[in-house]
Amino acid sequence: ITSIISITGKPGLHKIVSQTKNGLIAESIEDGKRFPVYASEKVSAIEDISIYTKTDDMPLVEVYQKLYKKTAGKAAIDHKAKPEELQSFLKEVVDFDEERVYNSDLKKLFQWFNILIKADLLKEEEKEEKSTKKATADKKDAKAPKKVAPAKKVTAKKTTTPKTSKAKATTKTATPVSYTHLT
Q1: Distance in angstroms (rounded) separating the CA atoms of residues 118 and 5
Q2: Most buried residue, 3, 21, 44, 88, by CB count within 10 Å?
Q3: Helix (H, G, I), strand (E, B) or coil at 134
Q4: How many alpha carbons lie under 13 Å from residue 142 in its C-beta half-sphere?
Q5: Which residues contact 42 (CB under 8 A, 6 or more apart)?
Q6: Angle separating helix axes 60-71 and 103-118, nearest 10 degrees
Q7: Which residues of 89-99 are buried (b: 16+ CB within 10 A; e: fewer)?
């Protein structure tokens, strides 16, 4: 769901396929047609959209996860149903603010949910969420300071040269070198 967007003036949901110098290339989730999206168009990522509840705003992704559990992965009520039916269905899942959430919002919410179910994108969200949690845990482990064995001093053996008439006895020692492992 991270690359799913809504574009003002274009119905349905779209997936970001590529980025261009002047904007994006998007693909319709419903029919697979690709088209350019220019910087002048208003684009909203589905994960940035939220719904008003009586206590606080709830991200649309969370609403969809709750709807997914309620419907057991099946399509929800049709978005063309009566507004009262849409409201009662959503009330079973989310305690939304009826004064600030309009009927047009409910229609769009259910239409998008059914599009995502049909395209089988919400199942992947659950898998992505688990892998994201694992990746986050791995990053935390990577940021934690790793224990490194203390550096050992390396010294060369003392050697002496045989004494001759002009030669002096010499000793050689190497300068201490420290090694650390970076993994």
Answers
A1: 16
A2: 3
A3: helix
A4: 7
A5: 7, 8
A6: 60
A7: bbeebbebeee
Residue with tokens 């507004």: 83
b or e along 166-179 (b: 16 or more beta carbons within 10 Å of the residue's beta carbon)? eeeeeeeeeeeeee
Block residue for tokens 């939304």 = 96
Structure tokens at 139: 């990053």
| pTM greater than the 0.70 cutoff | no
Q: Give the tokens for residue 59.
A: 């991200």
Q: State pLDDT tens for residues 38-92.
A: 999 999 999 999 999 999 999 999 999 999 999 999 999 999 999 999 999 999 9
In this predicted model, what pLDDT tens digit does every residue of 130-151 receive, in sequence order?
A: 444 444 444 445 444 444 444 4
